[in-house]
Amino acid sequence: MNRTSFKLSTLATAVALVSVMASCQNKDEKAGSTTAAKTDSPAVKSGEPIVYVNSDSLLTKYEYFKDLKVKLDAKSKAAQTDLGAKQQAFQREVAEYQQTQNTLPADQRATTEQRLARKQQELQSYQQNAGAALQNEQATEQEKLYNKIADYLKVYAKDKGYKMVLTYQKGNSAILFADASLDVTSEVIIGLNEGYKSDKK
């Protein structure tokens, strides 16, 4: 089984789709449990209609993502270790049989080979199931991450009067150019981390 790791490039896709529209008709919508940062960014003018967030910086500095990556990397490593131990045990059993097969009666050889074949199939199934379980958990956590960021940005954009929040990722972005004065990444990271800190208490 290839090690399933929770890489930054994978999670960047969770943020790459975040595009928040905040219109006047939504002013009375409930903001939910997430609270946007109240401090005005020194770089961005109040009322700018469109701003952007650098998704690379966002994910490397968002504490929730850091903790999530550590947790899932640990699970991946544990699964890899467990599978490796099972594979080694099976290989030892096969080696032991190969050393003694010439001394065994034909019926015992046939029984042992059938048993080893079943074990091999079980090991392959275990490998596939473990890999699928890790991928499913990763997909679930990606969705949670996306929702956390999207929910926060809805409140943030509404609070600041922004019409749209775009994301920028170096080498993988629809934004060819954006003035640095429209970059609200640092402010968004502060707000997200404050919200995560409150959730952990």
Automatic annotation (TrEMBL):
**Pfam families under this entry?**
OmpH
| UniProt name for this protein | Periplasmic chaperone for outer membrane proteins Skp
- What InterPro entries does UniProt report for this protein, alphabetically? Chaperone_Skp, Skp_dom_sf
One Gene Ontology cellular component term attached to this UniProt record is: cytosol
Question: From which residue to which does any coiled coil extend?
Answer: 109-143
Give the organism, scientific name.
Answer: Pedobacter hartonius
The GO terms this record gives for MF are:
unfolded protein binding
Family, per entry: Belongs to the Skp family.
Q: Which UniProt keywords apply?
A: Coiled coil, Signal
The residues the entry assigns to the signal sequence are 1-24
For this chain's UniProt record, which GO biological process terms are given?
A: protein stabilization
Q: Does the keyword Isomerase apply?
A: no
Respond yes or no to whether keyword Coiled coil is given for this record.
yes
